[in-house]
Amino acid sequence: MTKIVFDSDGLIKLTKTECLQILLEHFTCSITKEVYEETAIKGTERLYDDAFQIEELVKKGMLNVEKTKNNKQAQQILKSSGVGKGEAPSLHLFFNTNARAIISDDRIFLNLLEQNNIPFIIPADLIIRLVELKLISKDEAMDALNKLKPYVSQKNYNNAKENLED
Fold it and tell me: 149: which DSSP letter?
C-alpha cells in the first residue's frame, strides 16, 4: 500500500474536510511523534474538534505515529532551512520509510520540498485526487473544498475548484 507522511498543517486541514478517514482506508498514512503531540495532545487540551478525531484515528490504528530517526539526506536538506519543528521530523520520516509523498500546506516547507524535488501534495489538490481515484464523488469533493476554504489560500481553493469543474 502506498505510504504517505503528514505534517501538522496537512493533517489538520484534511481532518476538517472529513476526507482523512477515506484516505486512511486506502493508503498507509503516518505522522511523527511531534506532529501527534501538536495536533492531538495540544489540540485536545484546547478542545479542538479535529484533535479528538485525530486521536481516535490513532487509537483505532488507522493513522500511524512513528518515531523518527535522523536521516542524513533530510539533515542536508534541512540545513538552515527555517522549517518548523513539525515539518523537519516529517521529512526525516519521509526518507526513513520510503514514503511516496508528504501532505502539507506550509508554504516554507513546500518551497523546500519543491527545491529538492520531494513529492508533496497540498490538501486542496488531494481532494481532487480522491475524485480522480473514484474514492469520493464530485459533490463530496465540493463539500470538502468548501470546508477547507477558510484555511487555504484563495488561489489554491480556486485552482482545486476549477479542476473539479473540468
Answer: G
